[in-house]
Protein 1
Amino acid sequence: MRRRLAAGNWKMNMTPTQGAAFIKEIAPLVAGAEAEVLFCVPAIDIPAAVEAAKGTNIEIGAENFYYEAKGAYTGEISLDMIKDTGVEYVLMGHSERRQIFGECDEMINKKLLAALAAQMKPILCCGESLEIREAGDTLTWIEGQIRSAFTGVTADEVKKTVIAYEPIWAIGTGKTATTGQAQEVCGMIRELVAKLYDAGTAEAVRILYGGSVNPENAAELFAQPDIDGGLVGGASLKLTFEKIVKA
Ligand code: PGA
């Protein structure tokens, strides 16, 4: 059985003080939840968030890192630095990193390989633009992103990876994919994992949907057979995230 995951992605929205206060406030609301509860936060927020989450069922993840182990990379943060704070989950391949910061498929593959080598828990994001969807190329596009990201990744490592399908046109727009659209792509991703690896790996890998998930639409999305939870931006900044966790 795949354990459900409700993952928040704060993006560039909370200071360390605000983040810690928010975690303390939401912790009693999500205590004892069936789903795993995670907030991916900006690097500078990590120590305060980890401290605030101590003794709760809330896990903290990192929104970003660089794949090299150490050296002259001004402004970057390594996996060792993140691990030292006790954090295990790391995001990669988010469309904002791809589009605004120019991260390409090759870099995302390097990030995934580095995170797995460091025994971290990677969350690999993929998703198509509106242009690609309207051209009818969604499935081909997503297949390309997944194949590239999984280059050199073993079946055991895929099982430890969470995949998040996030259509770019649904991120931060209030325009959610229909449950049919979300299930279609998540189902295709699982089939692709079966084709590239084996049925057991496909059965084990967790696949999330992301893109304007909110307390109203979460239950229907998460009821789809191939959707194992959500990666949630805007709605993870509010206490009503509790409702998404419970969905
Ligand atoms: P959103 O963001 O929930 O605000 O649409 C999702 C994401 O980018 O992970």
Protein 2
Amino acid sequence: MAPDEPRSDCIFCGIVEHRLPAHVVYEDERCLAFLDLFPLTRGHLLVIPKHHVDRLKELEPGLYGPFLAAVSELCRRVERLAPDYNVAMNQGARAGQIVFHLHVHLIPRYDHGNPFAVAHRARLDDGDARELVKILSPPAGR
Ligand code: 5GP
Ligand code: ZN
């Protein structure tokens, strides 16, 4: 199956095809945004490309612009609810992804507090930093 064909087993493809209900707030030819069914805060939105891909790295480059434009438009609209918000993407099960159709979360924040805060964050280790730069600097596919 081509990566961008609708998947019958994908909830978000079902929403794109109007097989499943959703509270849609934005739609264009290539992207859709709707309310999260289990919102972390009031107004929690999801922005998706209509074509099915599970991760950002699978998105065809021609959709980078349209997708980011849709996210940006929804950011402006979310500011009608709250001036501050998180723009987040979970990529893979260990990162908390439960729906494997690419989506950006827009989560309005009504209170102070860092949702990514953990009890303790150790300072970056210099040796590990050198190793990480070696791993991460070369372009993908080399
Ligand atoms: P993930 O954890 O994959 O990054 O986020 C998936 C999001 O989709 C979750 O925040 C979850 O609440 C939301 N979600 C799951 N099922 C449905 C659904 O059927 N409809 C809508 N609108 N959101 C859903
Ligand atoms: Zn899908």
